[in-house]
Amino acid sequence: MPTDLDPVSVTDLVAQLAPGWRALRRVLHQEPEIGMDLPDTQQRILDALEGIDVEITTGKALSSVVGVIRGQAPHEGERPVVLLRGDMDALPVTEAVDVPFVSQRPGVMHACGHDLHVAGLVGAAQLLHARRAELIGDVVLMFQPGEEGPGGAKPMIDEGLLTAAGRRVDAAYAVHVFSAEHPLGMWFGRPGTLMAAADEVVITVRGEGGHGAAPHRTLDPVPVACEIVLALQAMVTRKFHAFDPVILTVGKIVAGTKNNIIGDTAILELTVRTFSAEHRTKVLAEIERVAVGIASAHAMTAQLDRHDGYPATVNDPTEQDFAEATIRDLFGAERWTVQEFPEGGAEDMSFVLEQVPGAYLNISACPAGSDPATAPDNHSPRADFDDSVVPDIALFLAEMAIRRSAALASVTPS
């Protein structure tokens, strides 16, 4: 692989390397792994990074890979550090897509496109290796397990991710693919809040069970739980501004064992999505007020167990503008569109962006010939991702590292 490359030949280099990136993506697609322990995926990444000038560290508590590529462009003083992230894990989904490289692991599928993310970040690493003479800063490569849960970004930060280059990261970027919504190759994003915070709440209503034929001799928790469900929906619309929304879904209700038995408890399991730190704090307090108050009105109790999830994903406006300008320059203005509203989904890149200014961008991998409006969404067993976008992801990430480190170096005191 060349170590010095004239900028005009970058397109040729991408064309030369792209078949290898797409082949890697398809192997990963056949060998999906779930969660924090992804030994096969980790080894595939390590193998793909062989032969390039990268300092590699593997995770202690998880199967992460952190690489550092050192810039060789002349620069006096401390070099900027840019982080590029690709998540690695799959989902517990049985694939229903007819492709030659279908998942070979029953019940596990790359239904969210993380195999494309890995291939794109490997591609960026190879491009940066070839273009080290242009690179003023140092680049941290973040290959992260567990994005789909329980969350790998925070453990990686705890293990020293943000200082892996010897200095703290100055800016961070990530790309996510979508299987629907936009035509193939369309980039989209927005400054500010991009995705919601996601928390879980379990409400246990405690009464006193008994015979279903004599409910007056019991404290039946089921109608109380139902009342809480309805009251929570009213609470969301009456306590929170419509333009800083709260999404509250009671996804699971468990009570009783038989139709003529009133149980002691009814359990509600909620997902709560918020788009600001203020409402994230406020809604959890309101849920407790409503549940405890309604249960008390019926001489019962309500216990709340809260499980904090990912915070909101927030794009720094300056970094978002820089990323958008880079996309327009590389691919043309016609391939960029502004995402009008934040998404209700959550993403643990948010832990990085809480500490480092950065941007999270999206690109459509909706297969050519499919209608983006009706194509299956990410997480569907029928989600299909066109890996022709992998070279674009690799090129964008590499260019962001080169261009942003140069811009940061120009304002960094020497």
Write the layout of secondary structure elements.
Elements: H1 10-30, H2 39-49, E1 55-58, E2 65-70, E3 81-87, H3 114-130, E4 138-144, H4 153-158, E5 171-178, E6 187-189, E7 192-195, E8 197-206, E9 210-211, H5 221-239, E10 246-255, E11 261-262, E12 265-274, H6 277-297, E13 301-307, E14 313-315, H7 317-331, E15 336-338, H8 350-355, E16 358-364, H9 390-411
Parallel strand pairs: 3-4, 3-5, 5-16, 6-15
Antiparallel strand pairs: 1-2, 2-4, 6-16, 7-14, 8-12, 8-13, 9-11, 10-12
Short description:
This protein has helices spanning about 10-30, 40-50, 115-130, 155-160, 220-240, 275-295, 315-330, 350-355, 390-410; strands at about 55-60, 65-70, 80-85, 140-145, 170-180, 185-190, 190-195, 195-205, 210, 245-255, 260, 265-275, 300-305, 315, 335-340, 360-365. About 35% of the residues lie in helices and about 20% in strands. It folds into two domains: about 5-195 and about 310-410, 3-Layer(aba) Sandwich (Aminopeptidase), CATH 3.40.630; about 195-305, Alpha-Beta Plaits (2-Layer Sandwich).
